[in-house]
Write a structure and sequence with these properties.
The complex is a heterodimer. Chain A folds into three domains: about 20-80 and about 90-100, no CATH class; about 105-210, no CATH class; about 215-370, Methylamine Dehydrogenase, Chain H, CATH 2.130.10.10. Chain A is about 5% helix and about 45% strand. Chain A has three helices and 28 strands. In chain A, the strands form seven sheets. Chain A has a four-stranded antiparallel beta sheet with strand order 3-2-1-28, with no helix packed on it. A four-stranded antiparallel beta sheet of chain A has the order 4-5-6-7, with no helix packed on it. The longest helix of chain A is centred in the first third of the chain and has 11 residues, at about 5-15. Chain A is globular, with a radius of gyration of 19 Å. Chain B starts with a helix and ends in a 13-residue tail after the last helix. The longest helix of chain B is centred in the first third of the chain and has 56 residues, at about 5-60. Classes of the chains: A mainly beta, B mainly alpha. The interface of A and B includes residues 160 and 223 of A. Chain A: This is DUF1513 domain-containing protein. Chain A: Keywords: Signal. Chain A: It holds the Pfam family DUF1513.
Chain lengths: ~375, ~350
């Protein structure tokens, strides 16, 4: 009997005793779980999950600091992607605490701290740096086997974060920075860097579209991004030039445009960003955009249809941002251990919880069964 | 609901403790502002005024003597600036004032290029909105240093160069006076953006930001002022050292390091007093580390940045100071963390 891919996947996960989120999410989670890496002190690093009341429901220690979790769309699997230069993604069943699998990068490659599952959960997609050459890669592995199925050029250098536009197209933030794990914070190509956003076919690795900042803004490293259901991609920059330079820090782009549509904001707000955007996130409707800046200590919001600036939530050391299933609502996490819930259009923000002695790391993810 | 006597007593003690703790930072912060920030800005503003007067006198009667007077006024103004340079907080953060004070390092010679353009027609600087849109490269001390010391300019022989110098010096004095006035007329807590629902007092949040600024400035001194120009880890770029042309690089470092000690001890209770009460070992360790910084800087010869030393010689001489500043930064970070301040997690080390 021939086994379909879907059936095979289901059987593989079943063989590994991995339940679906729907069948196994505890009642306490109320249909949603939030995931983030966190640290305690300088040397103790974890990935953990909390529910809508902010209580930590699960955590597992990690060998090094992780950057962003990657959450399986259907089964109770969450991966902690090691921070650049990352050499592991550790996968767990957060409902049992069981360690499922470790995936390592290709030889002479490292991860960038982000990964994404395909919509059907059958493939794991990672961004990797072939550090001898600096070539950016998109690597597609079967899940849960981890077998490399395809290896594509990312269309640039330094592919940091990617998001799925649909089941066949991935959008990649090629940050433009060439680095080497021997000295991973040294930028080897500062004067020649050319960041871009690339729309890539997952079927054959073909570049469908690319957009990049104009030459004068070539140090505008594109690091984080999100896509809404209307197909609008939001980009958050980390400018590698001087702190005093007046440069745009947020842009929108679409698959059929090769220009970046920079979003305005008041200059006193732009200056407070300190040239650094952290997380980029649309709300459930795709009409509100949130961009965090831990260096500035706030999250800024825009109305996407009119491209107008809405305001900020001040929050020290904030970086993690994720949409809830309610329109115009976000959950935020900070390095001070806080979890907050914000409705920027009604200017309401409240603290859900604060976990003392714990630093939430850069990015927050969520699984939702209530949608 | 029943509350035991012990629980009530414990609650009262806890409230009293937290209140005393808040008052402690109230006093310390008030005195950091009144006994450190304001007086240092008074000095900085006064020497900026003197510099403006000296450049006016120079342009009125150009000579080697008036030039020398202007250079001395400039040196004093730089030293006064170094006392407050660690503090990128409050009034100085508006209108890009902090970055306009020093356009450094100017890797592409933007300052000289823009000054040459201004010197070609200094009358443009008299237009009403010139300074509101002027490049930060020509608004502060980096530009003044270029005009006084760079071979592209001759403020004694060329009227237009001196006109530019006079205008920038006047603008610099006005800006500094404005920053001073704002510090005198406000409280430090007016300059923060508090979080909604935070339980920390505004005073705690300000002191936390000051501590973050202090820690970050130690990196500036070690990395940008010392390691980078001498080529500690890479190629040397001596001409990009801070105030290299006026030979103020090493004096500036020394002033910064002395300012740290001053900051640590200002007021009653000072940061040091509070630290001694709560974390005596760490407090004393920081005290020793800050003293060691000054001692190590004083070991460097006066011509350290200007004489014909080899890269290897400079590195060897710098090692004790580099290690000392690193050590003091670690000690300061450990101490402020133990005192209950957040020094930043995502904000200090993102990707």
């Amino acid at each position: 009997m021939l086994l379909s891919r879907r059936a095979f996947l289901a059987s593989s996960l079943a063989a590994m005793s991995i339940p679906t989120w729907a069948s196994a999410l505890p009642i306490e989670a109320q249909g949603e779980l939030f995931f983030s890496a966190f640290s305690k002190g300088k040397t103790d690093h974890y990935v953990g999950a909390f529910g809508s009341n902010g209580r930590l429901l699960w955590s597992m220690p990690l060998p090094d600091r992780a950057h962003a979790p990657v959450v399986h769309p259907t089964h109770s699997v969450v991966g902690a992607v090691a921070r650049r230069p990352g050499f592991y993604i550790d996968f767990f069943n957060p409902l049992t605490g069981e360690a499922i699998k470790r995936i390592e990068p290709l030889a002479e490659h490292h991860f960038y701290g982000h990964a994404v599952f395909s919509q059907d959960g059958e493939r794991l997609i990672t961004q990797e740096n072939h550090y001898p050459t600096g070539a950016g890669k998109i690597v597609i592995r079967s899940w849960p086997q981890g077998e490399v199925l395809n290896e594509y050029s990312s269309g640039g250098i330094g592919p940091h974060e990617s998001v799925l536009m649909d089941q066949d197209v991935i959008v990649i933030a090629n940050g433009g920075l060439r680095t080497h794990p021997d000295n991973d914070r040294e930028i080897m190509n500062l004067e020649t860097m050319r960041p871009n956003v690339t729309f890539l076919s997952l079927k054959d690795g073909r570049v469908i579209n690319q957009a990049e900042p104009e030459p004068l803004l070539h140090k505008l490293s594109i690091r984080h991004l999100d896509v809404n259901r209307q197909g609008v991609v939001a980009l958050g920059f980390q400018y590698q030039g001087e702190l005093w330079e007046n440069v745009p820090l947020v842009a929108l782009v679409s698959a059929n445009s090769d220009t970046l549509d920079y979003l305005d904001m008041p200059e006193q707000i732009r200056a407070r960003f300190q040239q650094y955007c952290g997380s980029v996130c649309f709300d459930a409707s795709g009409e509100t955009l949130a961009i965090s800046t831990p260096r500035g200590g706030f999250v800024a919001y825009w109305d996407v249809p009119s491209k107008t600036f809405l305001g900020v939530d001040n929050c020290r050391d904030v970086c993690g941002v994720i949409a809830t299933n309610r329109k115009h609502e976000f959950v935020l996490t900070s390095g001070t251990g806080k979890q907050l819930i914000s409705s920027p259009r009604t200017r309401q923000i409240s603290q859900i919880n604060q976990l003392a002695d714990l630093h939430w790391d850069n990015h927050l993810r969520r699984i939702n069964l209530n949608a | 609901m029943l509350i035991t006597k012990q629980a009530l007593a414990a609650s009262v003690a806890l409230l009293a403790g937290s209140s005393a703790f808040a008052d402690q930072w109230d006093n310390t912060l008030e005195q950091i502002q009144s006994q450190y920030i304001v007086p240092k800005y008074e000095n900085f503003s006064a020497s900026a005024d003197e510099l403006a007067k000296a450049t006016a006198a120079l342009c009125l009667a150009p000579s080697d003597t008036t030039l020398e007077t202007a250079k001395q006024a400039f040196s004093q103004n730089i030293q006064d600036w170094q006392q407050v340079q660690w503090l990128n907080f409050g009034p100085v953060t508006y209108f890009m004032r902090y970055y306009a004070y020093e356009y450094w390092p100017d890797k592409k010679g933007v300052t000289q290029r823009q000054l040459r353009t201004l010197s070609a027609d200094p009358s443009t600087m008299a237009t009403p909105k010139f300074w509101t849109s002027a490049s930060i490269a020509v608004r502060g001390m980096t530009a003044i240093e270029s005009l006084l010391y760079h071979s592209d300019f001759d403020v004694v022989a060329k009227n237009s160069d001196c006109e530019v110098l006079e205008a920038i010096s006047r603008h610099h004095a006005t800006t500094t006076h404005d920053v001073l006035t704002q510090w005198q007329q406000s409280q430090a807590t007016d300059w923060i953006f508090p979080e909604e629902g935070t339980t920390a007092t505004p005073e705690h949040l300000v002191v936390e930001q000051l501590m973050q600024q202090w820690i970050e400035h130690m990196s500036v001194v070690k990395d940008a002022k010392l390691e980078t120009p001498i080529g500690y880890k890479d190629q040397p770029t001596l001409k990009l050292a801070e105030f290299y042309r006026s030979e103020q690089t090493l004096p500036a470092i020394l002033t910064n390091l002395k300012a740290y000690r001053n900051l640590y001890h200002v007021g009653q209770p000072s940061l040091f007093d509070t630290a001694m009460a709560k974390q005596p070992e760490l407090a004393q360790a920081l005290e020793s580390a800050l003293a060691e910084n000054v001692k190590a800087a004083l070991q460097l010869p006066n011509d350290y940045f200007t004489a014909d030393y080899s890269q290897a010689e400079r590195i060897e001489m710098a090692k004790p100071l580099v290690l000392s500043i690193s050590n003091s930064q670690t000690k300061l970070s450990n101490l402020v963390t133990k005192l209950g301040f957040q020094i930043g997690f995502n904000s200090r080390d993102g990707d």
